[in-house]
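Before going further, learn to read the protein records used in this course. The integers have meaning only within a learned vocabulary of local backbone shapes. To see the layout at work, look at the sequence and tokens printed below.
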Amino acid sequence: MAARPTHHTLSVLVENRPGVLARVANLFARRGYNIFSLAVAPTDDERFSRITVVVDVESAPLEQVKKQLFKLINVVKIQELAPDESLERELLMATVETPPENRHQVIELVDVYGGRVLDVGTGEILVSLEDVPSRIDDFEELLKSYAIVNLQRTGRIALPKLHKGQPLRPAQVAAS
């Protein structure tokens, strides 16, 4: 039996206008819904932005969240992204304090996880990793055995998986 998810991931397409993100965040705050992660960026169409919001299941009944979001005038489309039907990614960047003689240990850890060394200083190294949230969690936990100076995570972003074996849409054919 599959484990019950503890979070809902919603992809919310909104008009790219000032104040939309604030209205969405305020809606969650007013209703007492706990936002686990929030990421927003413009789409390929400059008229729209995509907000990926991960909400705690216990604090937010999914249908109620969707109804409340649709009441916001700038919301165009809401899609729940089920874990088995979507791909999630997150980015972590961290500055780790490490003397030059131990730097190889951090570099090996980054290599094992498929991350990148972004910058190297005399006593610090700046690394990044883009991966599924669970691997980001594991990587962060292992980095804690070193002296973390700064650490930043983006929050989750997600899109639906592509369906295999379906014909391309006309716009995809023209672009290829």
